[in-house]
Every structure is written in structure tokens, then in C-alpha cells.
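Q: How would the C-alpha cells look for this protein?
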Amino acid sequence: MKYDVYAIGNAVVDYVTETSDQFLNEHSIEKSVMTLVDEDRQMSVLAGIDSGVTKKEGGGSAANTVVAASMLGGKCFYSCKVANDGDGHFFLKELSDIGIDTNLSKKELESGVTGKVLIMVTPDSERTMNTFLGISSEFGTKQLDFDALSSSRYLFIEGYLVASETGRQAMKEAKKFAEENGVKVSLTFSDPSMVKYFREEMEDVVGASVDLLFCNEEEALLFTKTDNLVDARKELRKVAKKFVITQGRNGSLIFDGDTFINIEPYEVTAVDSNGAGDMFSGAFLYAITNGHTFASAGKLASKASSDVVSKYGPRLTFSKLQEIKKEVFRWS
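A: Here is the predicted structure in C-alpha cell form.
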């Protein structure tokens, strides 16, 4: 196989800021979730934040995932849509420098505005996102690269795509093609709001089943309409052959198709939870596509995601990820 992971998702540039609960309340911003907004709303909120932008970097759930997998040593492909503007060129250069192939590598970019995510980090390390998708809202089946997908071990689908009609169609088309061509299908719910507000659409994408599902505890409970993890995991077994439920400071629960595996958390001081789930799925996918067990993959993913929440931003450096890999696999 040429690629370990072929991913599809919303390509956006992250603008990270620090703010307060009071600011969120004053601007009627729902805390700890991703909310889609128009460009004017996003800019007006940003203008009101005294601290300004503390960091700018390429983002998006699936992009963060393949960046982590690639930096750990995997070979990845990412299908996305960015505009012919400064943020679009910035986004693609980051991926190219890391060694990730894209559907846009040899194509002229369209005019428009590249998507942006305003990430507001509060003192409790929770991240609240206001997202203007820009041209990424037009992501659809035209952006799929079936040659790359057929040469991949896993398809990774970003749950945020469910919010747009063209995105949902791309999710379903990619999943159908993968299943017909022996490529395993993995899906992340991405955010509780995607399950809460697009439940029927998400169920439609999941269909009969997926090979591997990533979700956090809140998303698991919302999707299964249960109020406890024991019932939720029973329900998830009906739609996912294997799955991972992340539980923040309580670690994670993995079902490998036969056995439930509890992964202990690594104790850290959380600064910014942004990207923790993306880092987990990226490290996990790297490990299982490179000869490691689900238990070992869980340890690597737990360590990497713990490290990423101890700093601002959703990504770690290449050297840091190599250090983590050596540390974890030395004892696995």
C-alpha cells in the first residue's frame, strides 16, 4: 500500500486566542463546542478579544490527524479544499513540508476565502471554536482522489463534514468506494455538536457499520442515546466493528473487536484541550497501520494526546513525537 491513511476533511487555518468565560457569555458563545459562523461574526468576535491572536497554524480535525500520523512515520494523503489566498498557500505548504500528499498538489487553486477557525481558550484549558468554513464548505466528491484512496490501508473521515450537503455526499461516496475496494473505514465524530445537531445525517453516513470509530465520552452518549458508558459501548458495537472512546483525564476505552482495553491516562497539567482527539486518532492510526496492537496504539495515542494538551495548539513537533514513540514502544 502506498498510504497508511487517506483522510478527508475541512481545511482551515487556526487562529488561537486566550479569553475568559465572561467574554463567551457576553458574546453569547456556547462554550466547549464548535459553532459555524459567517465571516463577519467571526471577525467581530476576534476584534473584541484583547489578547489578540497568540498563534496561527494549519488546522482541521482530519488534517491534524494525518499530520500526527505522518510525523510519527506514516505515509498519508489528505483531500481538502482551500482558496488561492494567503491562508490557502500557508495551509498547503505546511502539509507539503511534512510530506503529506494532497489532491491540490498539482492543481491551480480557486479564488475565494480559505476557512478559518477562531479558537478561544479559557483558563480551564477548554477550547471553544467559532468556524467560518469559507471555500471548504464546498468540499465534495470532486475533491476525492480514488486512486490514492484505493492505495490506502485506512480511510479516515472527519465528522465535521456532516454539516454540509456536499460534505455528507463526499463522506458517503468515499466510504462506499473504500468498502468496495478493501480499504478499512475509520470515522471520528469530531465534536459533540455534530452528533447533537446532525444526528440523523451522521447515522446515515455511519450506515450499517464502520471498521473503526473514534469518539469522546459525550459523543458516545449522545449518539447512542444512553446515560452511561456501559450501555453506550454496547450500542456502539452494533455500528462499529472496533472503536475508541476517549475520556480526557480518565484515559480511554478501546474495543479491538474482541476485548475491551482500558488505557490509563498520563498525568499532565492541561493548558489547551484543542486537538487532543485529533492527536489521539493520528497516533492510533499510525500505530495500527505499522504493526502495533490496539493496546500499544492506545498507549502511544494516550501519551501523545496528553502532551498536546499541556501546550497551546493541536500539534507537536517532529522531534517530540519521535521522543514519545521511542519512550512508549520501548516498554510495549
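The radius of gyration is 18 Å.

The first helix runs from residue 21 to 26.

Upvote if useful.
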